[in-house]
């Protein structure tokens, strides 16, 4: 019998709500629990599982979301969210709440021997709605996502339901779920494993992660303290009180500061988390930054190790992996949750098209190839910062120490402190990219597989407010109407179930403020939308996938090439052509 | 055969290209020896790595630095 804790978790700033468990007996009696069946089951109601459920619901796909606990995340955990994450969270309707309650920032500082030796600036383009980074404790993010999920009639949240077994048979996944009144069986066509770093599904299926575990282990401690520093990342190298190791500080909302410090190699996690040990080290860090003796209160602490691991495939029959269940990434560079949101978004639209019969199941293979590729790229980048933050050998330590020493007088080494933050992956080699478009002819603008460049259209009005959750064709024109052949092609695609909307982009002196045949018209008031997208004449176009990544662009679009691009992007075989759809 | 020629070509470019006159080389020799002594046994390695990074930056050519690293690793 699964008995999740009904005691609210401890926190000095967050008021945990304990939810009632979902019990199989609550089902109407005519539906025997043994016969339960769902189109999609998502295991794990963390940020990634919730985002997957909310994304699926946008395409009308129902899901059952299983969460073994009765409350949100213990401790702040993921606290830094990137611009791309905010763009994804905007799509599922919670970005406003995150913006209202989070702390945005864009500078990172590295300190050595009391001197700031490097300052990193995150770019903030006037065309971007969101800041490069925003800090918010994970409990709040989960609370906002959960509120959206509970309000959505297509998502059934089952608190206190723990998956205990999984097997695949006859094109289904059969899972055993334990609850506070005992187990039941649930059959599903598709099972999404969003069950985190210690994924029970991954273990049950005996899947192994590939990659490196590093020696470095860090304590994370959240304390309430009043410090006069702005919201910026602060990294302290080789501090007197923790020689050779690294300390990180981040401001969180509600008067909380995150302090991460590396542990000496031979100290156990248990010893490191003793209150006296935590207090001595936090006091030493505060003294070093000139705020010794400032009163503070502990909220939460934990130990983690730097790992850079991924599954080799994220789709295994009817089971798909997202987030930490699929990969474990070093948290320097905020790569955990921020990578997970991109997984959720990349999977959900494909799975929805498959469930809705608008794409073959082979489309899911491109989820795996794109996101495993992204994880491997992140692992290569993360390896560089991990080798600097927590050097794995004598040689790496010597080089790191030489850079620290040089950085006091030689600015050329400064960029070696760069933290290589999480950034959206460009699916340059994706099989969903159109082979017969004009990608190579463009001198500007996002190319094949890239996430879109946001565009400021007016006060509080941006391009990405208007696209997503379907294929979006951006069609640049001065004319009053779309060419009729294009309009016919668009309705053909819709008839075969492909969600597609046409956005006309027109200059202020264009023939119409509302271009006929388009679902919406955006006015490019100063021409910089067309300029940033490398559009030199009317008739140019971009095709965005439902996750907003670009899969085709044309100097001059015609109906045949639009059909080919939509075929390529919905079949995932890399062979989409106009002929195949005839 | 070709490979051998290329290797010695690389060696030449990597290890001996640039012409430091013997007086200059002798001055560097003495100065480096004295600096290693001044750094002391605990810090000599750190000092030498710093120096290597400064020289690499001045050289501005990662391929030549890699050739120097290979040359220095030989016959240890």
Strand count, sense and barrel status of the largest sheet of chain A are:
8 strands, mixed
Radius of gyration of chain B: 15 Å
CATH architecture label name of the largest domain in chain A: 3-Layer(bba) Sandwich
Overall pLDDT confidence of chain B: 83
Overall number of strands of chain B: 0
**Biggest chain-to-chain interface with counts:** A-B, 10 and 8 residues
Radius of gyration of chain A: 25 Å
Describe the main β-sheet of chain B briefly. Answer: none
Written account of the structure:
The complex is a heterodimer of chains A (582) and B (76). Chain A has 582 residues and is an alpha/beta fold. Chain A has 3 domains: 24-104 and 135-209 and 310-366, FAD/NAD(P)-binding domain; 211-307, D-Amino Acid Oxidase, subunit A, domain 2 (D-Amino Acid Oxidase, Chain A, domain 2, 2-Layer Sandwich), CATH 3.30.9; 439-581, 3-Layer(aba) Sandwich (Glutaredoxin), CATH 3.40.30.120. Chain A is 27% helix and 26% strand. In chain A, the strands form 5 sheets. In chain A, strands 1, 2, 8, 9, 10, 11, 17 and 18 form an 8-stranded mixed sheet that branches. In chain A, strands 6-5-13-14-15-12-16-19 form an 8-stranded mixed sheet, sandwiched between helices. In chain A, strands 24-23-22-25-26 form a 5-stranded mixed sheet, with helices on one face. In chain A, helix 1 (47-58) packs parallel to helix 4, helix 8 packs antiparallel against helix 9 and helix 11 packs parallel to helix 13 (559-571). The termini of chain A are far apart. The model of chain A is unreliable at 576-582 (pLDDT under 50). The two termini of chain B are 26 Å apart. The radius of gyration of chain B is 15 Å and the shape is globular. Chain B has one domain (2-73). The relative contact order of chain B is 0.12. With 76 residues, chain B is mostly helical. Chain A binds chain B through residues 398-399, 401-403, 405-406, 410, 412-413, and chain B through 45-46, 49-50, 52-54, 57.
